[in-house]
Amino acid sequence: MAGARQHLDGVQALAERSRKRPGAVHALPAENNLSLSGFAQLIASTVIFLLAATGAKSWALAPSIPKLLLTLALYSLGNLIMLRLVREFGMASAFSLSAVIQLVAVNVIALAFFGERLSVVQSGGVVLAILAVGLITLGPAAGGR
Predict the structure, then answer these.
(1) Are 37 and 43 contacting, i.e. CB atoms less than 8 angstroms apart?
(2) What is the pLDDT of residues 33-54, one digit of tens each?
């Protein structure tokens, strides 16, 4: 019990020092509205992640080192953009928006271009996942904080 209390005191002291340090990021931005620049970055990361997912599917169908390297490079680039979005809008907002957009878009690509099919249960799961991410994203705006 004493060890846990010491750990908590240490974490609180570290948080206090970071608040006092100039330029320290210690809280989410006060304004989490999606700017035009942020929207463009979100779209760019989504397109890059979709290209990466398509590359991954292509690699799964016919594995090769160039396909693997391209897929890894695309995922890395998409994540670098996401890091910027996390800094600008906070982790919850950035990843929730990205997740729901990618969930819909990846399923459209898988179904329309690769001819994949989902069972009724899987389709229900996708719909529930979209609703869940939507609720997570809208929760703070609807007074959920």
Answers:
(1) no
(2) 668 898 899 999 999 999 999 9
